[in-house]
Sequence to fold (181 residues):
Amino acid sequence: MVREFLNKVDKAVIKVQHKTDLNCVVICNEDNYSRLMQVADKPNIYHRYASIDYNNTANHKIVSQAWDIIKEMQKKRRTEAISEIKEAVSQGKILTDLQEIYRAAKKGRGELLITHQDFSQAVKMTDEFSFDLVQDVTQPEVIDDITGNIAWEVISKKGRAIFTSQDEIRDLGHIALKVRY
Fold:
């Protein structure tokens, strides 16, 4: 009966995953997680699991457990992305000039964008592929932070964008783009 129940749960999670493209963290005991993995149609959508503390089952406690797992996974992904960027420097595939990064992102060349979380730059567009840096964000037609636009261009063209507070990226500046070619 437990396996049948977990199979129904799996089907419901898959429905949500198809709509949202989000994966899942499971909070349960080890035995139930093992059974879930046995019946799961797509076990790769379950990131990890944490053992439930039956003395602390309030929603905010369970959410906190899941969030700890997600934070750990995000830090690992950011660290791997920073290593990937640093390896690409020797291959000549890294851009650090903001104008060059923007042009490459618009043209679909961006594979991996890493931006330090504290970095922002206001700009005023001069044409489709270039801009002037601006200090006063209250001027008309000023984009208060071009990094969001760049990240969108990279992501919309099947690249990845990561914002990090890890200072390892500062060796390259505040923003770096690994290009495909």
In short: The radius of gyration is 21 Å.
